[in-house]
Each structure stands twice: as structure tokens, then as C-alpha cells.
Amino acid sequence: xxxxxxxxxxxxxxxxxxxQDITDAVRYSxxxxxxxxxxxxxxxxxxxxxxxxxxxxxxxxxxxIFNNSEASLSLGLFNKKNDITYFNxxxxxxxxxxxxxQLGAAFVFKNVNSNSKWKKFSLSIxxxxxxxxxxxxxxxxxxxxxxxSYFLTYAxxxxxxFSTLKLFPGENIEDAYADIGSLQNGYSIQxxxxxxxxxxxxxxxxxxxxxxxxxxxxxxxxxxNFNQNYLYASNGYNxxxxxNFAADYDDKLFFGINLNSHFIxxxxxxxxxxxxxxxxxxxxxxxxxxxxxxxxxGFSFQLGTIAKITNDFRVGLSYNSPTWYRISDELTxxxxxxxxxxxxxxxxxxxxxxxxxxLQTPGKVTGSxxxxxxxxxxxxxxxxxxxxxxxxxxxxxxxxxxxxxxxISNELTSSASYKLGGEYRYKQVSFRxxxxxxxxxxxxxxxxxxxDGYSFGLGYNFGNFNLxxxxxxxxxxxxxxxxxxxxxxxxxVQSKYSDFILTLGFDI
Length: 508
Description:
Porin; mainly beta; 21 strands; elongated
């Protein structure tokens, strides 16, 4: 009967019950193309240059700059170093991984009609990794706020009757937890359920036999100091596959279009361990785990043009449409304490699979200039603007998504990025360097800071193929909020990103 009741309630209401937040919109809106070694060594300032397979992802007209068909393959060694401060505790972590971050080919077709001003056109396919989610760090510190505030907030702010948290005769904890997930407000009720069966909270009138309608809850954790250990571990990537067409008009104007397919594969694991020796506390140790798996696919398009003002001076302009994603989430939770029901451990065998939802990320406009010093070298500059307030969770008619979209409009802002790159050639050797800066997408950049960094690299042209190597480093400071409600304290994370890229390019 309980299962049928919950199912009927769920069918009468929206089922978007997982607590997405602004950080999800920002995470999937970032597009830091890792690219080829040449691209990376010049900090990605290729919007007016073209002639590089990763530049196609900045300006689709780039492939029309190629004189011959080319292909390239890039491998990267990526490292992220974090310095973490959480109240009186400090930690450091470092994570490295090796990945294929770029693969592509451009096929150039020259017009045999010498009287036509359409000199050539190109067809390209280019894969680039646009975000790397691999990360792991630990925050340790002594807090005066307990994880009990997380469960109490859900229990007391959601008008949850105690009868909803009880088990029927013969029902086990894991079945009840799974059934609750079918309710409209299922995620919130599940958190209150975890708080109750882990022994962290109780209804205010626990000893009253007529307390089924009780909606007020109290904590079994006494106030004082709490030793907290918070583990954050994530992995995955955001990839982009561009199908490109570009054309060359009179060797002066270059036009291009991309049709892009996007892929999300993201896994995040968090674990909080908390202990206390507070007088009168029934609960003295708590463990709370969350494993989130996210997969998604999306589509976007790009339009771009490059103009040769003179043989040496070029300008470029490109437009990236929003990316329209379809995303699916799965969540597994685990909890325990010294006051928990013994069967609470079985909760971790239940995976919540949520209804697919949509996310629209913001579009971007990029303006570029470049000056080429004959065969000796070049200098290039890109300026991009992306308005993160245009991020939207859909359907917008959903009450939760509507509220979240309003929060996005209030807390996010427009972000500009600047990329400067240069190259000097000496015979077959090229020396490269660059600088990049990206503003925070948040109005409060103390929460999520600006990104800035530098890069340099070398290349050697063997004739029919080239070998390039690049090193890039950047840094950003983030105040990572542990949970959305209750325990909203933040860990200060100073992140430094370093990567080595090796590219093999060759004529085809």
C-alpha cells in the first residue's frame, strides 16, 4: 500500500528531485580546449590565425587556412596541485594523469578553376577534450557546525511527517529509502530518512504514540566542537567532436561552420567523517558518503570568419551557440554513526536513477587579431565574452528548475577571457609562448576566482611532419562549499594546473 501511495503521488508531480545547483551549470559551461601543443603553447590565441586543428574549435574558418591536408594527434600529461585550508587545518594534494586530448584531420580540396575566386574548401573532423574533471583532495579541521545541520534542514524545512520516515511491518530500510525516492520531494525526504535511521535526529515528541503527524525534529548531536575530515574525489571529462566545413574566397576571406557533438562523463565522490567528545552528545561519530554519476550528450554549432586585411594582418570573428545538453544522474548514498540502526549499511546498495533533464549553457563570441612577420614569426590576441546568466536548466516550468534559474541570474555574470600568444621561427625550429586570463563566472569572485596562467613550447618541422611540445600552467582559487544546505561551510582550495602536451602532426 505504501509503495502504491508513493508511486501515485510521484506520478502526479514533477520528478526532478535531485538537488542540482549552480556549480553544475558552471562546470559544464567551461570550454578550456586543451588542444595541440602549438595551440596550447600559445595559450589558445588562434582565432585569427587558423592553420591548426585545435583552432577549428575556436574559429571554424581556421581549416580554410591550411594549404594541404593535415592530421594531428596529441597526448597530454596533466597535473593538478591543491592547497586546502579548512578552519585550523591545512592539506596539500597532487593528482596526475595521461590522456589523449586531441585528434583530428583536415582535408583540403583546391579549386581547379583558376578563374574562380573560391580558391579551396576544406572538410575537417576534430576531437578536443574541453574539460578534465580529475581531482582529489582532503579538508581537515575543527568546526562548530555539525553535519547534523544538513539533515535537520531537510527534515524541518520540508514539512515531512514522521509517519513518512517509519517502516511498515515487514518492510526493510533499503526498500523504504528507495520507495521514498518516487515522491515529488523525494530527495529531501530521503535525506531526512537518512538522518533519522542513522540516529542523528529524532522527532521532537519521539515518545508520543500519536506522533505520526509530527514535523519538527531535533538533533542527537550536542553542540560544541567537531573534528571533520572531508574527502572530495572526481574524475571524467567533457569532450567535443567538431564536424567542420570551411571555404577560402580569394585568399582574403575565410568562412567556416562547425556542427559539434558534446559528451559528458563525470563521477564525484564525497565522504565526510565527523567525531566529537561533546558533553551530552548521543552521537559522537558520523560517516556520510555520496557518489554521483553523470552522463550527458549535447549539440552546438559555431560560425566564424577570418579576414586578411593585408598579407600580414588578420582579424577573426566567431560565434559559439549555446550547447543544448541532455543529462542523466545516478546517486548512491551511505551513512553510519554510533547510534545508527544496524541495517542502515544496506542503504549504500541502492542507486537512485533520476529522470533525464536538460541544460542549456551560454553562447560565446570571440574577436581576434593577428600579425604575421613573414616567415619569422607572429603574434596573436583573442578576446571572448560569455554570459553565464544565460545558463538554463529545463524544463523551465519545473518549480525547482525555475528557482535555480533565478539563482543563476542573480549569482552568475558575464565573463571575459583574454589570450595572447606569439611564435618565433628559426629555420625548422619554432619558439612559442603565451598568456591567458579568464574572469570568474560568479559575481562574487571570492567564491570562485579568476583564472590566469602562462605557456611556452617548442616545435620542429621535419618537412612532411612536425613534432611539438608545450607546457602550460594556470591557477585559480575556489571556496568549495561542502553541502548546499546546513553544513554550508567552505574549504579554501588554491589550485594550480600544469600540463605537458606532445603533438605529432603530418601531411595526408
